[in-house]
């Protein structure tokens, strides 16, 4: 972990540098419209075009560097978690292994660690970028027009209320989804390992009904969360369109009065769109962080298990109760990596 400590700092810094270039783009476009197009100044138009091209190239370069650092840090974090958890699982006592179950351990070393990797990657890329752009866009709007910037702050409050309100409604379901998925994995594994017993006692229909019931429960929770989450984009777009309507209405009067230029109106609409996009990204990031926190809690539950003096914990046998668990864990770890 120490070898990627510097990269974990550089990744968000490069993303903030990219954000800074992105915030300058609307100002360059406003200058091109007001000083170049309206005044038919070809020199200003070409200067603005070259400046936009330079900002795009430098922003792309900084984004690629940040993405590379973030991905490397995420992979190292996942590798560390996976290695520690695998070593801990092999040293579990028989009682702990039976309490946790093989399906639960496979889920923790596979999907849970993959969830942590994805969240670390997204955090390094967006945790500083999104607030930086939201605050920066509001400051730029305040710099262009103080009266219209009040509309930005009002829209920001409404959007934050919608985004975080929907998140608060959906967050409690994510743990249920994880548990339902774990139940499906457990049932699937039980049928695979005990297929001969199931067929010997003619229990195929019963096992199929139980599996369908667990799968149906998982589907219901997913659909319920999906219905609530589906409100996020339409409501956000409705607010942003209302905000753009208000912005164009008030700015048109200021343009007629000579208090505002047409290029400034274009810049303000761009800043408003940037705020919407970054708030949605931030909402998705927080949802990922909640899922990752649940995954970390499940992994810590295994890591905090103490040896109770059983033969397995004393080192007489490091094989878990089920001989197939080692191969299953290795396969799950490879798939998640």
From TrEMBL:
Name a single GO cellular component: plasma membrane
**Coiled coil ranges:** none
Q: Where in the cell is it found?
A: Cell membrane
| One Pfam family, short name | ABC_membrane
- Which is one GO molecular function term here? ABC-type oligopeptide transporter activity
- Superkingdom as given in the UniProt entry: Bacteria
Extract the Gene3D superfamilies matched here.
ABC transporter type 1, transmembrane domain
Among PROSITE patterns, the record links this protein to:
ABC_TM1F
Where is it predominantly found?
membrane
What the entry lists under PANTHER family is as follows: ATP-BINDING CASSETTE SUB-FAMILY B MEMBER 10, MITOCHONDRIAL (PTHR43394:SF1), ATP-DEPENDENT PERMEASE MDL1, MITOCHONDRIAL (PTHR43394)
Q: What name does UniProt use for this protein?
A: ABC transporter transmembrane region
Q: Please give the organism.
A: Oribacterium sinus F0268
